[in-house]
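Thread: "does anyone have the structure for this chain?"

Original post by V.I.:
We have the sequence but no experimental structure in hand. Need at least a predicted one for the grant figures.
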Amino acid sequence: SSGAAAAPLPEEDCMKLNPSFVGIALSSLLAIDLWASKRLGVCAGEGSAWGSARPLMKVIEVSGHGIPWLLGTFYGLCQSDSSAAREVLLNLLFALLLDLVMVAVVKGLVKRPRPTHNKMDMFVTISVDKYSFPSGHATRAALVCRFVLRHLVLAVPLRVLVVLWALIVSISRVMLGRHNMTDVLFGLLLGYALYGVVEHCWLSPATVPALFALW
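Reply from O.Q.:
Generated one for you, tokens below.
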């Protein structure tokens, strides 16, 4: 009847009509992330604002790719005649493999697509590389940077160059249009955290003698 009270809305409809503050904030941050990442993708294509710098950005991309690092580390491990150097290189190899596995797992779980302005001309990709979150290059850059600074004796200028390399590799991911900014930021945090795991699980002749017997 006309005098009857209106039936209450279902709970899910109330949620849609009254979105939470957290939901609004996250949606706003996502929109800002997508907008800013597209604006910063100045090397995403040859016709982009900085399209002429795209070849250089792609060289930087290769410098942070997993395959050159894995092959270089494995080669150094096979050629090294120092037990201390072998220990460091073996743990670097472990760190790189851990990085690949963790990034692949997170990408497979999140399944965030690459930015729409990205050109799929990346250097050697696998199935999960069609996803964007997190940036494997940024994760690797942070991990390798911490590892090198901790375990190699370098002069101050070289230490600065290592940090600059990690930053440039990370920034280049957004400039090339490969990733959004949040992909890169989370990648850097993940790489920083993974180094702590490597230190905690450090491989040495005392803990895994069979592994070192191979060399």
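V.I.: this helps a lot. The mean pLDDT is 88.
O.Q.: and Residues 21-213 form one domain.
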